[in-house]
Amino acid sequence: MLKYRRKVIEYPLFYIPLILAGIFLALALLFGVLNLGKPSVAAVIALDISSSTYQPQPFNAPNSIMDQEVQAVNAYLEANAKLSNPNKVQILGIGGGKAPKLTATMDSSQEVIVDQLSRQLNDPNLPYQLIPEPQQDDLDIVINKATEILEEQENHCRELLMVTDAGVSITQSAVTQATGKNIKINSLVFGTESVPNLRSASRQTKGIYIDNINLSNTGGSYLEEVFLNNFFKQFNSNWKWIRFWLGCAFIAFLWVLVLPLDRWIFQGMLNMSMEPSGKISLGLAFIGTIITVALMIAGGLPLISPC
Known about the structure:
Helix 5 (140-150) packs parallel to helix 6 (172-180) and helix 9 (239-256) packs antiparallel against helix 11. Helices cover 51% and strands 12% of the residues. It has a 5-stranded parallel sheet, sandwiched between helices. It has 11 helices and 5 strands; from the N terminus they run αβαβαααβαβαβαααα. The mean pLDDT is 90. The longest helix has 26 residues, at 274-299.
């Protein structure tokens, strides 16, 4: 049996990485519980308010698709008001090949946004502003207007959330412009069909795409849940920080394993001599560290790219 002067736990190569692993795990837990490091978010929410969202009922009639969209926005704003650093939000309309502003400016106040939205939706002239033009289902104008709004929001994660039906089109030029401004295109498509080019736009910009949602037979609470669980939660996630600290903890753990692998596995069980055993143990830690760091960089480091 091999004899050693000191126990494994007495070596700095073992207990220092062990302490660091504990610290990093504690930081990951702390960031997760307290939602520390949540990025500042600017979001443009574009709602389909074309005639297909309320007819044959009146404009914004209760329980219509349009009303469900508005209630979902209200749920988003209510959750947003509870954040220590609320999102800045502006709401656009989608209809008739146009993108009217339903709120005047970017704002983080729930009261201001709700008041502006209510006033605009109650404007009797709004439905007439949405008379279809030749390219009535073209979303380019929505993306371009949202891009103009969001590019002014420096030091914010820029999110565009479009809620529309399946009969829409979008060009690559609009997506490329949004990508160049670091804007994520998130899409919620109601109807029975998917929109491949809109799905592609969301994937290219690392946004969220959800389709094939039938709102005609659902209550408003369903769309509210989708808004909160799929979009609001993701927009305000600090997962990058949690992943960063877990990555650091994993690297530290790799170095914790150096001496146990050397003594108990390679020398003890495999009867290897000290020199090759030590080199293999250190080599595994180095390789594991390099791979982990590469994966962390590929996933985005929060200090460099918080979005």
